Records
---
Amino acid sequence: MLKIAVLVSGGGTNLQAIIDGVENGKITNTKIEGVISNKRDAYALERAKKHGIKAVAVARKDYASREEFGDALLQAINELDVDLIVLAGFLVILPEKLVAQYEHRMINIHPSLIPSFCGPGYYGLKVHEEALERGVKVTGATVHFVDGGCDSGPIILQKPVMVEQGDTPEILQKRVMEQAEWNILPEAIDLIANGKVQVIDGKVVINK
Ligand code: GAR
């Protein structure tokens, strides 16, 4: 059984897709041990509680320095004793220690086809604003392992989504979530939970 922690900052629709996936059998062999948010008022925490999942807030403002905050975050994660960390809209720069400790055991969902529209400053709606600004006709989402860089780790799954005439960032964000994010994040967890994902020479190989 793969034990996971889900880290969130906001509304938690990707968390919901994971909870639903575990409950409806799309994600097998997996238990959500807890949800951690850096925002006390994140709706994602309510979603966790509604499903009887431990919900913890570790807020930056409660700590004097970034380092203390990072240590508290690491401690909260370690207390859950998990095999995999899932970043589902977790908008915090991660402490190096955390990244090192969970190498190839931490994944992230990003709302574009990496390497487009990713890296420092590209998160949430900003990603879709930039995609529309550039005039791309196809965008999508990516699930990748987290390494020491920003959106630079080995890619596990990607799914394309068409941009349509008249899209606003909000409309495009919703389509990318519905058509890509909420599918590939649960799928990636299921693949990992069933031992089907390997990293070889810095690249992901999936043995279906
Ligand atoms: C999602 O679109 C996710 O891909 C994005 O934040 C949103 C969170 O929504 N993450 C990033 O931009 C990371 N760089 P949610 O709280 O409803 O899942």
---
Amino acid sequence: MHITRKLMSLLVAAIAVTGFTLGSSSAASLPEDVQAIAKRGELRVGVKSDVPGFGMQDLSGDYEGMEIDLAKKIAEAMGLDADDVRFTAVTAKTRGQLLDAGDIDMVIATFTITEDRKKIWNFTTPYYTDAVSLLVKKNSGIKNYSDLVGKRVGVAEGSTSKDALIAAAKSHGVTLTDTDNIQTFPDYPSIKAALDAGQVQAFCVDGSILSGYLDGGTELLTSIRFSPQDYGIATKLSNKGLAEFVEGLIVQWKNDGTINKLISDNGVAPSFEK
Ligand code: GLU
């Protein structure tokens, strides 16, 4: 695509979506960080590669899911083509580091908005809400929080899961501790391997993520669902213009039904009702 057409589309999109005013009718009045991406001709997005319906990489290396579609739509709103997005697979541990290092422009990867994280990165309005749950072996006997006493639960480094589980158990009168009940792993495949090997008795994270690890030998508990996780798109704290641009898009797409369509088109369950 020729650069001038990209910049023109960028101007039109920015005015329509975020209400940026063009005092001098030039691209110069658009946020510089958005212009820089359009000029580069490539939007760099950190996504999950193993979360069905959200961010999933197939054997040929292609990505699909609602977070993938969101990234493509954002690229189009910047005047780029949907296939001008370069996806990078991230984990709960790596996504913030990649953003800080400038390797990616944004993270759209089941990234829960928290007060602490908002001090480090910009987050948009939530586009989806999921609940945390547990994946256990079939016939594990685990049904309630009290069944976790004396057991070990695997959680991922850099995720909200550990604190969420300890707090939810506490609110049900059950004390779980980091030392006695939690084991931290660098990624989800290693937690699943530890569950299969009997090293942990439960795998705890958002239900959407767990559904990617469900197999014949395991079940996703419906009796333990807690701590609604609001997913937002994160950008580097200094990229204020980009953050405002993406926020405008998400607000518009929530209002006009686009987000709901992405949820249903990708076979994702409706957002968790708080
Ligand atoms: N959504 C949770 C978080 O942001 C779980 C971790 C993950 O997204 O991988 O901490």
